[in-house]
Amino acid sequence: MKLFYAAGSSSLFPHIVLYEAELPFTAVKVDEHSKQIEVGGDYRAVNPLGYVPALILEDGTLLTEGAAIVQYISDLAPQKKLAPVNGTIERAQLQAWLNFFSSELHKGGFSPLFYAGMPEQAKDIFRSRLLRRFAHLDAHLSRNDYLMGADYSVADAHLFVISNWASWVNFDLSPYTHVIRFRDRIRARPAVQSAMKAEGLVPWPKSQP
Ligand SMILES: N[C@@H](CCC(=O)N[C@@H](CS)C(=O)NCC(=O)O)C(=O)O
To answer: Any idea what the Cα angle at residue 14 is, between residues 143 and 200, rounded to 5°?
Structure first.
């Protein structure tokens, strides 16, 4: 399998999951702005939408959308228990978290804060959305070690990666002490360290969320 990624972006999420699954893969770096693939070529020939992540399977099939990619990888390595079994309520709850992170935190929260042309007043709308959503996550993580309860799952890697962006857009995570402790636990996982090293992200500031 081949994962197309841009360092520190949402593709770090499936990158972590590939290390967790211990499946053979190669990681190919893409410049998310110029769309140039590091080893040569235009990324839009791989994924016409031009964004990462994308996974190319051994038979050439293209799979996009982080939430779908990580579930596919999890199901290839069921012994790793990275996602509950398909068809169970637990799997649906995992999907609820993945959808929450990609819609409410990623696109409806952090993404607009990266846009250079976005007026501050508009950014404030998204900051206040993030405040409410992080308060919800903090309360949940005050009662649970992981998003799904007692056990690690791909949802935890998703929150870890998206919340990394807080330091890039000056969004203060320090009031969310349970989120911060959770992040420290996830960051310490060998698979997370491996993916971050592979993307040139180590050391990532520890105290500054
Ligand atoms: N819906 C996609 C969104 C992926 C996405 O937003 N990727 C960003 C990096 S975090 C990107 O490549 N942006 C460049 C672009 O949109 O052209 C997913 O959830 O996987």
So the answer is: 100
Same-domain pairing of 129 and 159:
yes
Average pLDDT over residues 133-156: 98
Pocket test for ligand 1, best of 42, 52, 73 (most atoms within 8 A of CB): 52
What's the chain's Rg over C-alpha atoms? Answer: 17
Ligand 1, atom 1, lies closest to the CA of: 65
Q: Residue 51 Cα, ligand 1 centroid: separation in angstroms?
A: 5
Query: Which tens digit of pLDDT belongs to each residue from 86-95?
Result: 999 999 999 9
Same domain, 129 and 167: yes
- Residues 154, 115, single domain; the answer is yes
Quote the domain boundaries for residue 61: 2-80
> Model pTM greater than 0.90?
yes
The answer to whether the CB of 63 is under 6 A from ligand 1 is no
What domain count does the chain have? Answer: 2
Residue 202 binned pLDDT confidence (cut-offs 50, 70, 90): confident
- Asked whether residue 209 is assigned to any structural domain, the reply reads no
